[in-house]
Design brief:
Layout lengths: L1 E4 L9 H5 L5 E4 L2 E4 L9 H5 L5 E4 L3 H4 L13
Antiparallel strand pairs: 1-4, 2-3
Bound molecules: iron/sulfur cluster (2 copies).
Length: about 80
Amino acid sequence: MSIRVIKEKCSGCKFCIKACPFSAIKLVDKKAVIDLDRCNLCGACIEACKFDAIVLTKLSPSKIDFLPGKKIGRAHV
Ligand code: SF4
Ligand code: SF4
């Protein structure tokens, strides 16, 4: 399981940043970006986002290779 921001839906309102207890979200080019090394998938940002711009994702192993976060890099291909 992982988490991602749907950039097209993100308004840059920062509600998710305020809601995250782990300071795992920042704005880059006015869009929320989640640091997967800090995120523990608590879901607080998903509830805070009024735009449904944050979603939990189930990644296939082939996609894991392309993620920058190390947290899920241990999956075997
Ligand atoms: S709460 Fe949603 S819309 Fe607002 S900055 Fe975060 S992801 Fe974007
Ligand atoms: S799931 Fe929890 S820890 Fe991860 S970015 Fe959202 S609020 Fe922060």
